[in-house]
Amino acid sequence: MGASAATGMQMVAARPCIPACQRMLGSRSVVSAFGRALSTRTGFASCVKTASAGPLISVTRKSFAVRAMSQGAVQGLPIDLRGKRAFIAGVADDNGYGWAIAKALAAAGAEILVGTWVPALNIFETSLRRGKFDESRKLPDGSLMEITKVYPLDAVFDSLEDVPEDVKANKRYAGSSKWTVKEVAETVKDDFGSIDILVHSLANGPEVTKPLLETSRSGYLAAVSASSYSFISLLQHFLPIMNPGGASISLTYIASERTIPGYGGGMSSAKAALESDTRVLAFEAGRKGKIRVNTISAGVHWGAELQRLLDSSRR
């Protein structure tokens, strides 16, 4: 099963959690934490403090904020990202975290590229083209977020050789090409040369509704593959085209360290793996490409998935 865009219980920004009724990037603390994850060194971003892991030279948030205000940057992240290019993996509608992150980056001046799960690509592009997202595209200064290019992406597959024949023949993938992680990275390089920001905003657990004791091996491994290894794969293939001093960010969840009833199917394990991988990737990518690597977490997204979790917790 392909990695879908992060909606539902996926979360963004930083411990401690914000109230569930506040939408992602809807509060100043969330925006600030996301900004810190971009401008600090490596590790885990927090609303209260930023924990870092790694030897990279850090540009302080204060200096970014001062520069942004002095140059008249739009409201939002306290960072001036004009002249920077971001690739956000996991944008399939205007209601998920990937979309909200793209808007925050666009408001700060970054050029936006997105990777959309292949089965959702046609609907997403059609809705975008017909103006159905125009209201959601509005930035703080009144302008509309521009998405320079939408790429088909299934982050479960590293290269074409990894794709099973039944997936290749699936009608939901018909008409799309070059959608594996390696192929997308190569296409972005051909189109733009390089990027500065890489965002991993996708996850999928086919057995997320099952308790861990009832989760199959295949369901567990699928959750880890789509929700954590996909970040490793993205960084593997995009690191060569990332400009030194750039940043890579993924989204974690508090289930990595606490029991959340209803968040099963190996997803809690996948998030724990993602956090552990972030530390190692911060060490390795920092030395190899001078890239900061962070994962951020703040709360839950109010929607059908959250309602399902609340219902599970009452049983």
Features:
8 strands, Rossmann fold, eight-stranded mixed beta sheet, 315 residues
Model description:
- By secondary structure, this protein is an alpha/beta fold.
- 37% of the residues lie in helices and 14% in strands.
- Strands 2-1-8-7-6-3-4-5 form an eight-stranded mixed β-sheet, sandwiched between helices.
- Helix 6 (181-192) runs parallel beside helix 7 and helix 7 (217-238) packs parallel to helix 8.
- The model is unreliable at 5-30 and 43-74 (pLDDT under 50).
- It catalyses: a 2,3-saturated acyl-[ACP] + NAD(+) = a (2E)-enoyl-[ACP] + NADH + H(+).
- GO terms for molecular function: enoyl-[acyl-carrier-protein] reductase (NADH) activity.
- It is an enzyme of class 1 (oxidoreductase).
Give a short synopsis of this structure:
The protein contains nine helices and eight strands.
The main pleated sheet reads as: 8 strands, mixed
Through-space gap between termini: 29 Å
CATH topology: Rossmann fold
Count of individual domains = 1
The neighbouring-strand order within the major sheet is 2-1-8-7-6-3-4-5
**Strand-residue fraction?**
5-15%
Shape verdict: globular
* CATH architecture group name: 3-Layer(aba) Sandwich
CATH superfamily: NAD(P)-binding Rossmann-like Domain
Structural class: alpha/beta
Order of helices and strands: HEEHEHEHEHHEHEHEH
Q: Which consecutive residue ranges, at least 5 long each, have pLDDT under 50?
A: 5-30, 43-74
User: Strand tally, please?
Assistant: 8
Radius of gyration, Cα only, in angstroms? 18 Å
Query: Quick one: CATH class?
Result: Alpha Beta
So how many helices? Answer: 9
**Share in helix:** 25-40%
Overall pLDDT confidence = 80
